[in-house]
Amino acid sequence: MTMPSRMPEPYGQGSGSNLADILERVLDKGIVIAGDIRINLLDIELLTIKLRLIVASVDKAKEMGIDWWETDPALSSRARRDELTRENAELRERLARLEELEPGRAQKKEAP
Fold it and tell me: Which residues, 6 or more positions from 31, have their beta carbon under 8 angstroms from its beta carbon?
């Protein structure tokens, strides 16, 4: 009679589905990792670094009210267009104010 082995499975066998399950749970529920680093010298605080890491799916992040990537021009083409539209409107306003200050000068430029 042989006894079943109680040795763990070698690395890589069956871990794919376990890793996928863990990743699915983390993305579904979300996970927060927080920590602070403080450097003091003679009771004088020289440096404080606050680290906050949130790992979650996009849907879960939106559910929590986190959607900063939607308004970041570096990450969103819609935000980039909105920023360019706003900048264009500001430049047009500045140009209109300058033309109001010197109306004769704007007309001289237009004439051939």
Answer: 54, 55, 56
Decide: 53 and 33 in contact? Cβ < 8 Å: yes
Helix (H) or strand (E) holding 34: strand 31-41
| pTM (two decimals) | 0.41
97-112 pLDDT, tens digit per residue, is: 998 888 666 555 555 5
Buried b (16+ CB within 10 A) or exposed e, 59-71: ebbeeeeeeeeee
H-run or E-run covering 37: strand 31-41
pLDDT digits (tens, 9 = 90+) for 59-78: 888 888 888 878 888 878 88
Reduce the secondary structure of 39-79 to three states and give it as a string. Answer: EEECCEEEEEEEEEEEECCHHHHHHCCCCHHHCCCCCCHHH
Tokens matching residue 100: 């109001």
Q: How far is CA 84 from the centre of its chain?
A: 20
